Amino acid sequence: MGNKILERYILKKFLKSLFISLLGFLFIYIITNLFERIGYFIDRDAKFFEVIGYYLLFSPMIIVRLMPLAVLLGVYFSLGLVTKHNEVLAIRGLGVSPFMIYKPIFIYGFIISFLVFSLNLSFVPRTKYLLEEYKKVRIDKIKGLQENYAQNINYITPEGWVVKIKKLKRDRIFDANFFHYKQGKMVSRIYAKSGKWKDSLWILEDVHDRRFSESGEVVYESRKNEKSKILKASPDELGKANRNPMNLAFTDLLQYVRRLEMSGQFSRRERVELLERISYPFMSFIILFFGCPLALEVKRRGLIFGFGLGLLTSFTFWGIIQLFKELGVKGASPPSLSVFGPDIIFLSLGLYLLVKKKPF
Fold this sequence. Notes:
Blueprint: H1 2-43, H2 48-84, H3 87-93, H4 98-121, H5 123-139, E1 149-156, E2 162-169, E3 172-182, E4 185-198, E5 201-212, E6 218-227, H6 235-239, H7 250-262, H8 268-279, H9 283-286, H10 288-294, H11 296-301, H12 303-329, H13 335-356
Antiparallel strand pairs: 1-2, 2-3, 3-4, 4-5, 5-6
């Protein structure tokens, strides 16, 4: 019973500190961003509630980014203040292990990481897409946006064909090119001057078909019209094809990466983004391995020192993550290593600190 009361006490302090830290960092981030963009909003005559709506959509992705820092400060203030006020001595006097004191924080830290992970799969990318659309319509006030009208469309079919369309207008396409690659080499190119969506099929017009052999020979055919077996996407789907891949839900981004690879194109940036959506949320859990030993510094060196050390640890971790990410995007390291490498490094260091540091 006593341990349950202690766990609730520690947990209450941790969650309260976490909530206050997260709100504080979110407020500072939004205010800073607002001051940077205030001229942009004034130039476009954005109303007060339009700006509020912009930052409501802006907040979810910032919360995900700030969560590890908020978790670190949450555990720092909750355990740190307990240590500073000598409450922990009374707890230890009851024969309670330091790791039992850490237990509720680690359990809920993992739950928080899992919730952030779940949001990061689809909800956050969705809000990023909605933010872009909101910005176009409500802030930039671009009129006449239609899902079935677009220019310079780039689309990859499930079979790996790369489709480039100059213009889509309602149920018609113009200047469509179809490319097929094998092992990085183009083996086929089809050009259609126009096409019409009819009976759930694209009827291509004025078609020119070129196929390239390994020896360099070109086989050429022209057809007045044909039913396309390559392009099966509807006009609505094509209208959405130019959506930023980084704003796709996890499963859609996974399909996009697979199509890129089937088409023979490099997909480093997209693959790094895909893996980061799994790895980054668990930074909130890994950071606890630093936060719990760091709480001891409140007693030994004071509140300000520990606070500064906590910030330094968080930004160092974030900086290393960004460095490894860029190495993965540029091809200097495999995507999996660039994404999970920092987590493994900091988890190892955190475990060492947790075991090495003399608790309380």
